[in-house]
Amino acid sequence: MRKISANYIFPIHTQPIKNGVLTIDEVGKIVELSAFGDTGKDVEFYDGIICPGFVNAHCHIELSHMKGVIPQHSGMTAFCKSVISYRHSDISEQMSAMYAADKLMENEGIVAVGDISNNDLSAQMKSDSRLIYHTFVETLNLNPCFAEENIAKARNIKQTFANKGLRVSITPHAPYSLSERLFELSVAEGNNSGIISIHNEESFDEMDVFAKKQGKMRDFFGTDMDAFLSEYDNPLRRILKYIDSDTSLLLIHNTHTNERDFQQVLTRNRKPTWVLCPSSNLYIENHLPPIEMLRRKNAKIATGTDSLASNTNLSIIKELITVSDNFENIELNELLTWATVNGAEALGIEKQFGTFEKGKTPGIVLIDNINTKKMMLTSKSTSRIL
Ligand SMILES: [Zn+2]
Question: 312-322 pLDDT, tens per residue?
Fold first, then answer.
């Protein structure tokens, strides 16, 4: 047994507890959460606050070898071009970058990850990892002739992850990068698994191509887009055409989502989670998602880091600091709710993760360098797993 205390404990399912004491057993299972300060010698006391382990709801660990290689603020189409050109790097370099990224996340207090994969290269690393991964095998191809072949390939990759006992499902990349047939087949796979994670309304270029049927993205991806562009004036509507109402729908980025889009999602799906990756949005086009609107609408928000191709780190605390710097009115408990239980629920792992409720093994994270007077993160706040 360990007894752990700090200036404040944020259990997430209840209000923060000043000098609370958390008792865990040898495997990290929550045995007791006490509101009464225990000053016994057997209590480990930390300066700072304690919360459950972070859930990184959106990552692409297989892009970890691209850290620092893509210029910032060059826009989405230029970013896509760069990712495609760096995809086929040396395999051993890719593998070691993935193992290092996994360690980086573990040290920062991340306990679970929703991770996008285009191949099975990360399967062994995920099997070796102490983190829980849900792998989303991603489909993308604009040429409808290859739709059946692409789905068959995705099923094979999915099987490789499943054979290692890993959580896995198939998901479409984004509304702009799949033929109608492949999009329909991929969403059907996700509906069958009960979960979809899709990039949504991420960039100016994406909004432009649906609204105007032209622009940088159309120039790059070509005439294969025209078949579906004539049918949809907005990327989100393509998702909503096929999504089941009970599928856990992780909408990633939402940088350009407006209130009308938000309402439309609610008419089609009962379980949307709005996954925000603010550092990546700033990296690619120096723009932040509509956080005030989402909060006003009581949206369920979760946080992701995206990949090291569009972020300098894989750190949930740094994502929260970015939000806190730009929206000072958001209380710390709310930010931590995004970073813990909301991501856990979206990924269907809330029985184990997300709160300090008895019986869970959520991981224990210490956050230091907090402004305890205002109960806010500072630019110096860091997190680590205890
Ligand atoms: Zn992404």
Answer: 999 999 999 99
Q: What are the pLDDT digits (tens) for 112-122?
A: 999 999 999 99
**Ligand 1 midpoint to CA 252 (Å):** 7
Is the pTM value of this prediction over 0.90?
yes
Question: What is the rounded CA–CA span in Å between residue 118 and residue 137?
Answer: 6
Other Cβ atoms closer than 10 A to 78: 17
Residue type, 118: N
Q: Is the dihedral of CA 43, 44, 46, 50 positive or negative?
A: negative
Do residues 156 and 191 touch, judged by C-beta distance below 8 A? no
Distance (Å) from CA 202 to ligand 1 centroid: 9
Q: Which two tokens stand for residue 302?
A: 């979760």
Domain extents for the chain? Answer: 54-314
For ligand 1, the distance from its centroid to the CA atom of residue 380, given in whole angstroms, is 26
Pick the CATH number of 54-314 from 3.30.1490.20, 3.40.50.1820, 3.20.20.140, 3.30.43.10: 3.20.20.140
Q: For residue 31, how far is its CA from the centre of ligand 1 (angstroms)?
A: 37
